[in-house]
Design a protein that fits this description.
single chain; 331 residues; Beta-lactamase; five-stranded antiparallel β-sheet; 47% helix; binds glutamine
Length: 331
C-alpha cells in the first residue's frame, strides 16, 4: 500500500464520499430521457430521483442522493442469475444453451444466433429467459427462493419482491412470452415456457436500492464474497465468467460505447438502476429512472462516465491506479 503522503492532497481531502458529491453535482441536472412504460407499473416512478452509491471491497459504503429508495432490479438480475446458473449447473451446460457473443441488438430483440440456435448472450432477454429456464429446471418450485437468497447474500440484507410490478409485467409481457416460445421451438429452452418466464418476471421484480447495487457490485469485485458480511454469495469461477459477459454485453447495444468510455463491467435495468464493478476494488450503484432509447438510465450513464474519468476507473486508462485505488481515496 503506498504511503498516504504520496497521494495528491485534493484526493486525500475528499475521500470517496466527496468524489461522489462532486460527480452527483455535475450530472444531476440532465432531465432528458423517459420512464419505461411498457411495464405499466414502472411508469409510476418519480422521474427526478437520482442516487449514486459506492461500496469498497474493504467494506466502506458511501452514497449521495436517493440511495435508499427501492426500485425493481429488472435486467440487472440477468447478471446475478447467470452467475448462479454457472455455479449450479457448470459452465459447459450453461454454454450449451446460451452464448457469450454481443448481439448488437436491443435487449428485447427477437433474434438468436443462427449457427447454434442459441440466444447470443445472457444479458439480453432471450438469453436471460433461457437462464431462468435452466434455474427453474435445476431447482424446481424452490427456484425463486434460491435466486432471492443469493441476491440477498450479495446485497447483505434480505431482499423482497414487488408483487405489483411482478403482476404488471406478467400480465403485459407478451413479447417475453413470445421469445420464450420461440426459444422452446429452437431447442434452447429445456424448461416449461410458463415456469421460465414466471421466474424471469419474478427475479426482475426484486426490490433493491442504489446502495444494494453498490454492495452487490462490491461482492462481485471481491470475487463473490460480500465484503460487509464476509459470507460467500457466488463461486469465484462463476464471477469471472459473469464479469466477462457484463463487460462485453451488459449495456445491450450500447455495450461497445460503454466499454470505450467507461471501461468497467456493468449491467443496467429498465427500472433505472446500473450496477458497475471495478475489479477487486469497488461496486458502484446508480439510480435514475429516465432512460435513453436503448433502455439505459441517462444520468446513470453520465455518472459512470464522470466517475470513470475522475477516478481513472477504465481498465485500460493510463491513470488507472489498480490495487492502490482505494488507498488514494482514503481520508
Ligand atoms: N432491460 C430490462 O431491464 C428489461 C427487463 C424487463 N423485465 C423485461 O424483460 O422487459
Amino acid at each position: 500500500m503506498p504511503d498516504v503522503s504520496s497521494i495528491p492532497e485534493n484526493e486525500r481531502v475528499y475521500g470517496l464520499k466527496g468524489v461522489l458529491e462532486h460527480s452527483f453535482e455535475r450530472t444531476r441536472h440532465d432531465a432528458s430521457g423517459a420512464l419505461a412504460d411498457y411495464i405499466p407499473e414502472l411508469a409510476k416512478a418519480d422521474p427526478d430521483r437520482f442516487g449514486i452509491a459506492m461500496a469498497s471491497v474493504s467494506g466502506e459504503v458511501v452514497g449521495v442522493g436517493d440511495v435508499d429508495l427501492p426500485f425493481t432490479i429488472q435486467s440487472i438480475s440477468k447478471a446475478l442469475a447467470y452467475c448462479l446458473a454457472l455455479e449450479a449447473l457448470g459452465r459447459d451446460k450453461v454454454l450449451a444453451h446460451v452464448g457469450v457473443e454481443p448481439s448488437g441488438d436491443a435487449f428485447n430483440a427477437i433474434v438468436f444466433d443462427a449457427l447454434s440456435n442459441r440466444p447470443f448472450n445472457p444479458m439480453v432477454n432471450a438469453g436471460a429467459i433461457t437462464v431462468s429456464g435452466l434455474l427453474s429446471e435445476a431447482f424446481g418450485a424452490e427456484a425463486f427462493e434460491v435466486v432471492l437468497d443469493r441476491f440477498s447474500a450479495a446485497a447483505g440484507r434480505r431482499l423482497v419482491m414487488d408483487e405489483t410490478v411482478f403482476r404488471s409485467e406478467a400480465q403485459t409481457g407478451h413479447r417475453n412470452r413470445g421469445i420464450a416460445h420461440l426459444l422452446k421451438c429452437a431447442g434452447a429452452l429445456g424448461a416449461d415456457v410458463d415456469d421460465a418466464v414466471d421466474l424471469y418476471f419474478r427475479q426482475c421484480s426484486i426490490l433493491v436500492t442504489a446502495t444494494d447495487l453498490a454492495v452487490m457490485g462490491a461482492t462481485l469485485a471481491n470475487i463473490g464474497e460480500n465484503p460487509l458480511t464476509g459470507s460467500a454469495a457466488f463461486a469465484v469461477e462463476a464471477v469471472r465468467n459473469t464479469l466477462s459477459v457484463m463487460f462485453t454485453c451488459g449495456m445491450y447495444d450500447f455495450a461497445g460505447n460503454w466499454a470505450f468510455d467507461v471501461g468497467v463491467p456493468a449491467k443496467s435495468g429498465v427500472g433505472g438502476g446500473i450496477l458497475g464493478v471495478v475489479n477487486r476494488q469497488l461496486g458502484i450503484g446508480t439510480y435514475s429512472p429516465r432512460l435513453d432509447a436503448k433502455g439505459n438510465s441517462v444520468r446513470g450513464i453520465s455518472a459512470f462516465r464522470d466517475l470513470a474519468e475522475e477516478m481513472g476507473l477504465h481498465v485500460f486508462d493510463p491513470t488507472n491506479r489498480g490495487s492502490s485505488l482505494l488507498s488514494a481515496y482514503r481520508r
